[in-house]
Amino acid sequence: PIPANQFLTIDNQENAAIEYSLLNMNASEISTGNISSGVKRTIDLDELSSGIYILQLNLNGRISSQKIVIQ
Question: The pTM is what?
Answer without folding.
Answer: 0.86
